[in-house]
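On to my pick:
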Amino acid sequence: MRKRESLYLHALFALVREEFEHDRDLATEAFEEYETMDVSPTAVHRSKAVHERAVFALADELSSVVASDVDAVGESRRNAGEETDRYAE
């Protein structure tokens, strides 16, 4: 992946993170690993490797947040007696 692509993905994932924080009222520690990296998508002077690590950290943390949301929805459906697999025949 080229540096420009890494910067683009970093910016895209940072926007997704902002949407998740705004819409889901996430705790601040949800993105702790990314925050410790101290790199922003606009830091064009930083190396490609740093941006790639930031992208992977954001992707990992975003997927964890989504997985916990999916687990919570599945649990609430089970508690309500709804079918959790809507594609089952």
